[in-house]
Amino acid sequence: MANTVLHKANSRGHANHGWLDSQHTFSFAGYYDPLRIHFGALRVLNDDQVSPGMGFGTHPHDNMEIISIPLEGDLEHRDSMGNVAVIRHGDIQVMSAGTGIRHSEYNKNKDHLVKFLQIWVFPNKQNVIPRYGQLTLDIADRHNKLQQIISPNPNDAGVWIHQDAWFHLGKFDHKFTTEYSLKKEGNGVYAFVLKGNISINDQQLNERDGFGISDVDKITIRSDSQDAELLLMEVPMKIENEK
Fold first, then answer.
1. What is the pTM of this model?
2. Which structural domain, as residue segments, surrounds residue 138?
3. pLDDT tens digits, one per residue of 183-240
4. What is the DSSP string of 105-151?
5. Residue 241 falls within a domain, yes or no?
6. Assuming Cys at both sites, which of 52, 60, 130, 145 could form a disulfide with 98, CB separation 3.0 to 4.6 Å?
7. In this structure, is residue 10 part of a structural domain?
């Protein structure tokens, strides 16, 4: 029997720092809920918007796979590996923090917000050499289909991370229906609705709702509104680290 967890948009943790307005699906910084620490290997799902010209100063990370998905505006990235990049809607950015990195993220624009998802996934290997990856995807390739954006395989579609995880993005017409078959036994799927209304296995979800489901082989996805957008994250439910 499937195990499920529903996180409604208005139940998320909220922090407004003036320059940063952030919604936390899972416990993060000053928001702590013992029932919402993680979903399997998915540790952080932050829905952030940053004021013009503002951003996160240089700060450290280690032993975490960090994924940024821009939704609107331009986000400038700098890190201790020497990378300087701007990521925009349609781009996917990953960092394997491994033995340790330092980076900063700023809204490059002076006249409008930048909105992006910041996602952390526990890695399956500890203390790897830090790594940066970025890719620009064709948004048209997710119309009425699930476009793979992350996998464990450097030779597969999208960018890759040190975890048996697969992420997909989809943008669907009203009443469009599709199935997603899980790629690895023991994995679960966490769905996050970016826009509109979507049903997964008949669980109705609205914009910014999150829904986790495990102990299933596949799920059924139905769009209940026009131009509904979905982020689907398949992750291991057990966290195993190799030294």
1. 0.96
2. 3-236
3. 999 999 999 999 999 999 999 999 999 999 999 999 999 999 999 999 999 999 998 7
4. EEE--SSS-EEEEEEEE--SBSSPPPEEEEEE--GGGGBTSEEEEEE
5. no
6. 130
7. yes
